Amino acid sequence: MPQEFEKTFEFLARSGNAAATPVLIAALRSEALDIREFAFDALLKRSSAKGEAYLFEHWHELSEAWRLKIKQQMGVMTAILREQLLSPSRPDCEKAAAIALELEDFDLVRSVTTAAEDANNPNRDVAGRCLVSLIDRLRKLLDEATDARKRNLVLWRGRAMESLDDSMRRCSTHQSDEIVESFLMLTSREHPMFRHLLDEPNSQVYKLTLSILKRTLRPAIVRLILSVFSETAPCPTLLAAAAWRTDPPFVAQLLDTFSSGMSEVELRNIKKIARVGWSHDQWDLLRSLTGRQQETALRFLIASSQDRDTVFGVIHFFLTQGKPDGRLAAIDSLAKDRGAVASQLVIDATSDEDPEVAAAALRQLRHRGIPGSLKYLLAQLDSEHEVVRVAVRESLEEFSFSKYLAAFDLMMDDRRETTGHLVRKIDTHSDELLVAELNSEMQSRRRRAIEVVECLGIAEQMQGPLLNLLKCDDYLIRVAAANALTNCNSDEAIAGLREALLDRNVSVQQAAEASLQSIAERRMSVPAVRVIREKTPAGETE
Question: Which domain of life is it from (predicted)?
């Protein structure tokens, strides 16, 4: 565009002559794109009621780029929007409300608040919805803002709070839900007006506020409600609002708040709650929770003063219909309950499809004195799940290999074998302890260890220590070791026994010879594997 045109538009933008506005408006309809753009920029720089009226009237015809420019140049349409928001025309009022929200014109909060207060305003509901939407947007921007923009947002919040605080003083007169909700979105629990709202339970304002606290899902208000749990002197009304609600989104957020644990202050405040709304016949809600939330729900209920029958009902529900984490938490919560019903629930949970849940239930069986629990635990030693096997071993910790060794000499032969195999299953350190016994400096302990090896038939597993004992100073130990090696078929065992044939003690030689004979007989009894040789293409055997 020629420089003369640019200067012309700059002049029209600065001109105090009202006739400049119609000229610029006409230029907006030019076929030339650059003329339209310069005319629009010039129009935005002018403070003109006619210009604002044109933009309002033709708002839906404006391009997104032009709308963005209006938004960035704050206050361009504030006057016309304020006028239309207070207009008796519903279409114009609704249009102004939509534009105000799109432009994020927070300077309109006072005007919209006034319109929402006025009982004679036919568009009071439109103004109320506009106010709530504007404050909700302001709250979100404050929560997400970077340092660069936060200063302006804080200023707008301050102005908005002045308007809302002033309006709340007249709340008993106008009783506007939207004004109260907007105030709650921006306030803090320390604000004097907020404290005052909850001072008089019989007032209409109190009932209005409580109604909003019990139903709203506005993030700022939900945070306001949940923040009460961290107060040293919590507001009873906020605690009640948090406890009574049964809407799934709120309950989920409440439980997520405590998913990582509860502080001492939070536990004390939860203890003050006598009735938790979602613990009474809210099965669909409880079923919809995640496993982590179900776990937290139980911790919350147990920490509260909710009656025990209701809490037990939730425990029973989670055990039968909960998710794995919920079932696990339910089992753990029954640890101190020795009642018959609780014991039956624990028994049922031992066969849970989730091994973690089954393991937690198995850990409780012995302490409950349930008949047949020992037999059932022993049967689970062969479970395919390691966590279950570990739980059984923890429950049968008295079946230790050290105790077995101490009682070995006092046992009958048949008891030695069965008990030994059982203990080896339970005590995972059995073989380590047995090796230590075989390597002991005390001859009596080594002899007993060799007896254990023979009794349990585990010479192959203990082959290394047994071969070392063939070189022991005590010939009786060498004899016992040679006898025990009779059950080993490895080449290493045969080599060790052949060396023992040269032992200086005849008894050792005889024992080694007998073991070698047994090994040879076993090897001879193994069927020979027939090797079929393939023929070459010429018919010859390779």
Answer: Bacteria
Q: How many domains does the chain have?
A: 2
Question: Rounded to an integer, what distance in angstroms lies between the CA atom of residue 104 and that of residue 422?
Answer: 75
Amino acid identity, position 275:
R
Going residue by residue through the chain, which has 542 residues, state the pLDDT in tens, using 9 for 90 and above. 556 677 887 888 788 788 888 888 888 888 888 888 888 888 888 888 999 999 999 999 999 999 999 999 888 999 999 999 999 999 999 999 999 999 999 999 999 999 999 999 999 999 999 999 999 999 999 988 777 677 888 999 999 999 999 999 999 899 999 999 999 999 988 888 988 888 888 888 899 999 999 999 999 999 999 999 999 989 888 898 899 999 999 999 999 999 999 999 999 999 999 999 999 999 999 999 999 999 999 999 999 999 999 999 999 999 999 999 999 999 999 988 888 899 899 999 988 999 999 999 998 888 887 888 888 888 888 888 999 988 888 888 778 888 888 888 888 888 888 888 888 888 888 899 999 989 988 989 999 999 999 998 999 999 999 999 999 989 999 999 999 999 898 999 999 999 999 999 999 999 999 999 999 888 887 554 444 445 444 444 44
pTM for this predicted structure: 0.73
Q: Which two tokens stand for residue 278?
A: 């979602």
How would you label 185-203 residue by residue, b for 16+ Cβ within 10 Å and e otherwise? Answer: bbbebebeebeebbeeeee
User: Containing domain of residue 478, as a range?
Assistant: 401-525
> In this structure, what CATH number is given to the domain that contains residue 471?
1.25.10.10
Distance CA 503, CA 290 (A): 71
For residue 260 the two structure tokens come to 């990582």
Residue-wise DSSP of 251-263: HHHHHHHTTT---
Within a domain: 512: yes
State the burial class of residue 476 (Cβ atoms within 10 Å of its Cβ: 0-12, 13-18, 19+). Answer: middle
Determine whether 221 is exposed, middle or buried from the number of CB atoms within 10 Å of its CB (0-12, 13-18, 19+).
buried
**Residue 192 neighbours by CB under 8 Å, 6+ apart:** none
Q: Where a domain ends, among 76, 99, 115? A: 76
Q: Which of 76, 96, 115 is the last residue of a domain?
A: 76
Tokens standing for 239? 């605690």
In a domain, 225, yes or no: no
406 exposure class (CB count in 10 Å sphere: 0-12, 13-18, 19+): exposed
| 444 within domain boundaries | yes
Q: Which residues are paired to 541 by β-bridges?
A: 535
Query: Which 3 state secondary structure label does DSSP give 450?
Result: helix
